[in-house]
Amino acid sequence: MTEPLSADRNGGDTAVIIPAANEADRIAATVKAAAALPGVDLVVVVDDGSADQTGRVARAAGARVVRHSRNRGKAAAMETGAEAVRLLDEDATPRHLLFLDADLGETAQAAAPLIEPVRQGTADMTIAVFTTRVKLGGHGLVVRLSKEGIRRATGFDPAQPLNGQRCLSRAAFEAARPLAHGFGVETALTIDLLRKGYRVAEVEVDMSHRATGTDLRAQLHRARQLRDVARALAVREPLVVQNLDRLRPKR
Known about the structure:
Layout: E1 14-20, H1 27-35, E2 40-48, H2 54-60, E3 64-68, H3 74-89, E4 96-99, H4 112-120, E5 125-130, H5 141-154, E6 166-168, H6 170-176, H7 185-195, E7 200-205, H8 216-236, H9 238-242, H10 244-247
Parallel strand pairs: 1-2, 1-4, 2-3, 5-7
Antiparallel strand pairs: 4-6, 5-6
């Protein structure tokens, strides 16, 4: 359900969309930093079935909140947020769409370089490359699978293929729909847009998010990532999935 929203653009041309699930501890800082970005006049948080106060905290921080009654996954949250922005744009020039993770906190203030190439018309989608690398608890299997899949499908060799901080023109976003399921969305976005002739650029930014741990919950999260990326690639490049065993780390 979407709360009533004002269509006043206030001279801005970019909307920030933040998919969020159980991020009450960081969402306020992320929203405030995103709202202060140059050209941003709208921040939409999609509360993806949170069990905590994510939606309430986001609204108090100044975001417009759309809520899923149950968790539907990242791609569905991105689509919901983009649809909310489309409804607000009405007959006006469509806003650019900047997607940010909910756990960026204050580092979201460094996202401005992602917007500029899209605003200037030199790129249709930008992908963040974090200059500050956070040590992750996994072994990089999902990253390697995505990276290799994108390279095989398009010839493009991304530095951080799973990075969710991306800015797209509305036209590019619509060209990529329907989005791939869940955590396969970033891999599929890159492949689909490049294959359709859209311009994709990587941009270095000084941002960081919460590191993934090594506990059971974190391992299950990585398993879901692997499943979703493999599914996205199976549709677009079946040979990559057949070679999955080759990408596994050697012991």
